Every structure is written in C-alpha cells, then in structure tokens.
Amino acid sequence: MDIFSPIQTLADYLTYNLFNIAHETALAHSVNFFIYDLLKIFILLIVVTHLMSLVRHYLPTKKFQAFLTSRKFYGLDHVIASLFGALTPFCSCSSIPLFINFLRAGIPLGVVFSFLITSPLINEIAIALFIGLFGWKVTLVYIISGLAIGIIGGMILGRLKMEKYVIDLDEAEKKCCCCKKQKPTFNQILIKVSKEAFDITKKISLYLIAGVAIGSLIHGYVPQGFFETYLQIAGIWAVPLAVILAVPLYSNASGTIPVIQSLIAKGVPIGTGLAFMMAIVGLSLPEAMILKRVLRLPLLAAFFGIVTVGIIMIGYLINFVF
Length: 322
Description:
By secondary structure, this protein is mostly helical. 75% of the residues lie in helices and 0% in strands.
C-alpha cells in the first residue's frame, strides 16, 4: 500500500471537486501535481530534518576531529569524512570554521576536502525530496554518487600536495564572521532539534514552492519527449552541457529537485538530471566566493575541476545503468 495515497486522494478531491477543474486537461495535471508533491514533500521534509538534526547533535565536531586524528584508518578516513559531510549542513557559517578547525586538528587536507565536497551534495533536504519524488532506489543512487565524488575527489586532492594554496589559518579565521554557538544541555536537545528542523523548513519554503510550481507547469504543459528530442541533438555532450549550464544558477535542493523530477518525467535521462542538480548545489558561483576566503585560486580551481569531472562521470554512469 502506498503510504502517500491519502495525499493523492486529497489532491484529487481539491483538483476535481473543490476547484472543479476538468479531468485530463493540462491545468488539471499541473494543479494536481502541485498539490500532491507540495504536501508530500513538506511532510517528508519535517520528518527527515528532525531525524537528521537529532543525529547531528550526537555527532559533535570536536569528537569527530579527535576521532579522525587519533586513529589510523588505512584509507577509510576519506569515507568517514564524506559520511560526516553528508550529515552536516553546508553554508558560509559552517564550512569555513569547520575547514579551519579540521586543519588545525591535523586532519590531512585531502580528508578535509572529502568532507567539503560531500557536504553540499548530500543533505537531509535533498534526501527527503528524493525519497518523496523518486523513491528509495534513486535516493540510494544519489547518496552513493555524492559519497563517491567526495571520497575519490578528496583522495585526488590529497595526492596533489596543494597545502601551500590554503590561506594562512589565522588570516582565514579573521575573514570568518561566524559566532561560536553554545552547546545545548541535554534537556534542551529535543527543543533545539525541533526548532532547527522547522527553521530549515521555513527558510526553504519559498524555494520549495517555486520549484514545485515550475515542475507542475512542466508536468502539465510540456509535451512528453520534448526535452528528449533536444537532448538527442546534444548527443554525448548532454551531461557536460547540463553541468556547465548549472554553474551560473543559484538555488538549493528544495527548489531544484521538483524541477528535475518533471524534466525526467518528460524524457531527460536520470543521470543528466542528477548531474544538473548536483552541479547547481555543489558548483555554484556563491559557493566559490565562500571558499575563496580559505583557498587560493590554484587549489580552488583544482577543487571545482575535480568535482565537475566527478559529477559528469556520475551522470554518464547513471545514464548507462538506467
């Protein structure tokens, strides 16, 4: 039984009974899609953000630093750093202090980059949206792909020996305007987790509504196979073209994934759509400006170049498998 069937029933009632929109019309398909996806995504988002916020409170950064620096993992340190990156939010107020603290703690540069690469690519918002829109199979592919890019990318950057291109840590710390947050007591954790989850949901609500609205228009009004026709013209260059077009865009997973869902439904290969989404959240120009505070141009270029190639290769691989 589909656990979301009550939402579909409600969407059908609102579309065809309350709004009295004729069946099998483009407007009906768009409105029904918008109501169903918006309700389903918001429910999933609230549940997943609560769970991931709770997990983050039991994975404190200082313990993670001590864990990585006090043990020999024989190559597994990149895997552990990438997994930690998937559990933590990525923004200007979290990435720079973590980057500095990890390096100060003696964690190798390549391992820190495994965290830095994975953090924007995988987050609880994207996971919630993928589960709701694509199901568990595609969600697992998305998670594994993001982890693979982080692990392999970090290993490559570590072998390049580019530590000299990291801005002096004292100078970088001065550039960071973040305030240190006080660790909550045990009795405050649940309240803090709930507040954090609802704050995240509130911050992305407009992006989410806009993304679902665009997706619903594509779903209702764009003919089946429309994008597939133009992608066939691009041929083998469709995946890198999608990645290049995504770089100037600025959005987050909440606004991007509903659009990708509609594009895939209209003929865009899943690997191409996933590469486009990953490039938007992982290769944006605002992110480059954030990272420029701690990375000099050669290292910043190497970072973006390796992530770009990784996303393109993942796109090709997923298209081949699916």
